């Protein structure tokens, strides 16, 4: 990974971050669900493209390794807040998803004692995030009437249940990775 900041993948991640407040405003302000869905679709497409382009263009960067998961977490937080305030999802769900990230953030000081700032993303975490990023637009689409809304609601809740389970399972696996690292890696002494 290099130190470059201005790359195509980083620009895509930055656009995703800029669209987070736009999404929240669309959902909570004028309740323009169609446009909010469009923003989520753009977010999903750019999430896929930034990683693919980083690899294919050889533009993987340290800032990109931070921006991408931060954008994912911001979207998940924004969506659960928006859907919670709209009573599309229950508040317990809106709390347990960000709680996992708070739990993992609490592990960072332990990682730093071993010279790490984060752990590599594993497939389970990516699968959980992908499942949730499918779930939320479907739940938003399901907040209507008709056959399409009914189907979107069913599939949205299926992805939500699966995504939450994977999200927390991934969090527990990260915690075990941190524990293993603490046991097997010597403490870094800072000057």
Automatic annotation (TrEMBL):
BP GO terms, sorted: glycerophospholipid biosynthetic process
InterPro entries registered for this protein in UniProt: CDP-alcohol_PTase-I, CDP-OH_P_trans, CDP-OH_PTrfase_TM_dom, CDP_ALCOHOL_P_TRANSF_CS, Phosphatidylglycerol_P_synth
Single GO term (MF): CDP-diacylglycerol-glycerol-3-phosphate 3-phosphatidyltransferase activity
Primary location: membrane
Membrane protein topology class: Multi-pass membrane protein
Residues that span the membrane, as ranges: 7-28, 91-111, 123-142, 154-176
Cellular localisation: Membrane
Name recorded for this polypeptide: CDP-alcohol phosphatidyltransferase family protein
Provenance organism: Aeromicrobium endophyticum
Upper classification of the organism: Bacteria, Bacillati, Actinomycetota, Actinomycetes, Propionibacteriales
